Amino acid sequence: MSSRKSLVELFNRSLTAFQTSNDAFRVVYTLPRLADSPSSPAPRQPRQKVDSLVVLDSSFNPPTLAHLRMAKSALRERNIASGGGGGGARLLLLLAVNNADKKPKPASFGERLGMMHDFAEDLLEEEENGVEVDLGLTTRPYFHEKSSVIAEQGGYGGAEQIYLVGFDTLIRIFDGKYYDDMGAELGPFLGRSRVRVTMRIDDAWGDEEEQEKYLEGLREGGLEAVGGRAEWAERVEMVRGRGQGEEVVSSTRVREAAARGDGEGLKGLLSARVRDWVLEEGLYRE
What we know:
By secondary structure, the chain is an alpha/beta fold.
């Protein structure tokens, strides 16, 4: 395993190279490391056809157990749908760095990429289907733009993209204020992509029934009312979030526990390697 310091240095170099290029998307690392891979960690082109590209797009500040559950659930469902053969599913952990000229807080982009690396190792330890995980960077702020550059530059062929989002993000995706022409911009995105929504049960967003009613409302004219198309709602799938007895997880709760140095409290919020990184490197203490 690479040391944390060397990983952060590696990712800082990758970030600088990306920022000084004209690329809008780039894979900077692929896990797991293979025996015949170069001694220096590097991205790796898919060795088999990718049917489904599962995209987890986040600030990863830090990556949490909620992210892990979302990714595992989507990957396992793709495996079941393919009859247990993996179905050419691949996971992309995507970090947007469009504000990279400003010092990100509280964890640097290099540290976040390092935690994404360890998060991927924790996930791979639990997966048995030979999935590969790419760590990617993008300068694009919106989903339809990210999807376009991934399709053009990612080397994934014509893979269907599956975006893992929370309910609050779904509302933003269909908010007309983010588009000059919603039909022209979201149409291609939803032609190549699906949106897998983890329902968020809290006071701000209501219960599962209310969130399912929102999606039904989109099907019944809500999308057309804002310049979209009703059939887009068929590209959206709603799934349950945390299971019985699982803690509510948020990046805010993680940072609050980390600020107290509460290692026990972080056990229900972060995977093992990410938790060790946060505690041992003193992240989020300020």
